[in-house]
Hints:
This protein is an alpha+beta fold and 161 residues long. The protein is built from three helices and seven strands. It starts with a helix and ends in an 8-residue tail after the last strand.
Amino acid sequence: MRNDLTITLAVLAFSGNLSAQAAPATPASAAPGQAGGTVGLNDLPPAVKATVEAETRNAALKSVSREHENGKTVYELESVVDGRTRDLMIDSAGKVYLIEEQVDLDKAPTAVTSVLERSGRIVKLESVTTRGQTHYEGHVRTKAGKTIAIEIAADGKPITP
């Protein structure tokens, strides 16, 4: 979710430097208890399972996957709430540390949409909240037809990796 190429393209596209790339998380097929791949609710640690159940009470659960980030096992919860995507990253203790939520363009800060529109047509916008700090990730289709992701603060300033 957060550790893919589109994240790094965020500011790099804005600044005109598209040479750097982020290292992806490590998903793969996995047996219960191992990192990587989609997992069933019954294969989750109790604290993670409780968080998943609480966070999907009013949502459609798409998937839960086990990943490795910075040497630790974490869980990605993908869901849909009121027709919008909502993804969470959960640590092995069951604490949510990152939330990505799809945002309607008319509800986004004007500073954010203005900057994104300079790069092309906005095809998707998400708010990204990490440990209480919120910024935005816009997926923009450029005039050249490429879709890029741009990370931007609520005040319209680009976020550098």
